[in-house]
């Protein structure tokens, strides 16, 4: 745990923020892939792969987050 500015940031808080960031990256990478699909298929494919990889991270973080809710 970390205490800053008079409040405590817990491990659950860190996991929640990481999950939020990860899901945002999934959306961003998907949007990039869709936007450039016609211009550069190779780069669009790379962004699609990034989205898939990040989705795996998001899923693992969500499992951890659910564990904190029990």
Task: Count all strands and give the number.
Answer: 2
Order of strands in the sheet with most strands: 1-2
- Helix percent reads over 70%
Gap from first CA to last CA: 19 Å
The low-confidence parts are: none
Instruction: Give the helix/strand class.
Output: mainly alpha
Secondary-structure element pattern, one letter each: EEHH
Radius of gyration, CA atoms, in whole angstroms: 16 Å
Q: Please work out how many helical segments DSSP would assign.
A: 2
Q: What composes the largest sheet?
A: 2 strands, antiparallel
Relative strand content? 5-15%
Mean pLDDT level: 94
Shape: elongated
General description of the model:
The chain is 79% helix and 9% strand. It is mostly helical. It has a two-stranded antiparallel sheet. A hairpin with a 2-residue loop joins strand 1 and strand 2. The radius of gyration is 16 Å and the shape is elongated. The mean pLDDT is 94.
Compact overview of the structure:
With 70 residues, this protein is mainly alpha-helical. It has helices at 11-36, 41-69; strands spanning 2-4, 7-9.
